[in-house]
Design a protein that fits this description.
- The chain is α/β, with parallel strands linked by helices.
- Strand 1, helix 2 and strand 2 form a beta-alpha-beta unit.
- 44% of the residues lie in helices and 14% in strands.
- Strands 1, 2, 3, 4, 5, 6, 7, 8 and 9 form a 9-stranded mixed β-sheet that branches.
- It is built from 15 helices and 9 strands.
């Protein structure tokens, strides 16, 4: 009897909840925190008359929250800056499959999720920024070569707790195995110019301050610095050059990661969520992204911004981006074992 009452009460509550669903909203849990997103959300609101509600936190926190909220989770979409975290959400059974072709047939094939759980929004390359006065471009080649003795005391990079570095190491685990990745991590530490600290932009600032010569950073930070209204940041960005690692004919290409979006299994406003996915990958939104956040567009009809096009074309590492999630646990363990703090 008690069970029946609970069942009835939950039907009533669930029913009420559904009645409360406002058709004019989409709720997004997002790791992204950039002005460019706010601008695009506003544009979406105006175009579709659908209000965008955002909850911002880091991806692991958002995933925990979605799990805790369960069926009562109000979120429709999860946005992360890492395919690894979208893989994690899918793996924890929080996402529902989408028809990516139906949402947008113009997304670059190589950036799509083979399992159809997420959609890429932008992509970024983990590049080497270098001081052209101290480094000859011919000296640079691959991520693997950064452990070469010639780079002793010359490499700048942030801590190993950072997701961008964890994704890069995940790709090395996928390509070369755990043993290699541990060795690479330790040998790289031997070449560090200083104890890892600061964010990606701080590594570039350290090059310009002559603390050292090369830094491992995400490509869009160079674009953000080069286009900054702060004259010092602008000068900093313009003082370094961008190198895309692993470009030789026999090499696999530069490590990339995506910002992407997944549709939550319990999404209460699914139609609006799909409209949002269509919008965010549209030519308008993709042009806005590349011209303002200096990420690479995922829509094949949109060219990279003039500023980032100047760095040249590059071959991307075609590793299945889900591997950045599959190998993540191992990568974190390897970092813990290695001397990279
Ligand atoms: Fe970032």
């Amino acid at each position: 009897m008690k069970k029946i009452i609970i069942f009835l009460v939950s039907i009533v509550l669930f029913g009420c909840q559904h009645k409360q669903v406002d058709n004019k909203i989409v709720n997004i849990y997002s790791k992204r925190h950039y002005q460019v997103d706010k601008d695009l959300f506003k544009k979406f609101e105006e175009e579709h008359n659908i209000k965008v509600n955002i909850v911002k936190a880091n991806s692991d926190e958002l995933i925990e929250r979605i799990k805790t909220e369960g069926k009562n989770c109000p979120a429709d979409l999860l946005i992360t800056v890492d395919a690894g975290k979208l893989y994690k959400a899918a793996n924890e059974n929080l996402l529902t499959k989408i028809n990516t072709k139906e949402i947008n047939a113009d997304i670059k094939e190589e950036l799509l999720d083979k399992n159809s759980f997420w959609l890429p929004i932008t992509y970024r390359a983990r590049i080497i920024a270098y001081n052209p006065k101290k480094v000859n471009i011919d000296e640079l080649s691959t991520y693997e070569d950064l452990t070469n003795e010639k780079w002793k005391n010359r490499i700048l990079v942030r801590t190993s707790s950072n997701a961008y570095n964890q994704a890069l190491l995940s790709s090395l685990v996928a390509h070369h195995g755990e043993e290699f990745a541990l060795k690479w991590s330790n040998n790289l530490v031997d070449n560090f110019a200083r104890e890892p600290k600061g964010n990606d932009r701080d590594q570039v600032r350290a090059i310009v301050a002559n603390i050292s010569d090369i830094a491992i950073v995400n490509s869009y930070y160079i674009g953000l610095l080069q286009s900054s209204s702060d004259s010092l940041d602008k000068k900093t960005g313009e003082s370094v050059k961008v190198f895309f690692p692993n470009q030789a004919k026999n090499e696999r290409g530069t490590h990339i990661n995506i910002s992407g979006v997944g549709l939550l299994k319990n999404s209460p406003n699914k139609d609006n969520a799909l409209k949002f996915m269509k919008f965010i990958t549209s030519e308008y939104a993709q042009e806005y992204y590349t011209n303002n956040s200096f990420e690479y567009p995922v829509n094949k009809n949109v060219k990279p911004s003039a500023l980032i096009a100047k760095w040249g074309d590059f071959k991307i590492d075609h590793l299945d981006l889900n591997e950045l999630g599959i190998k993540r646990k191992k990568a974190v363990e390897i970092f813990e074992k290695s001397r990279w703090n």
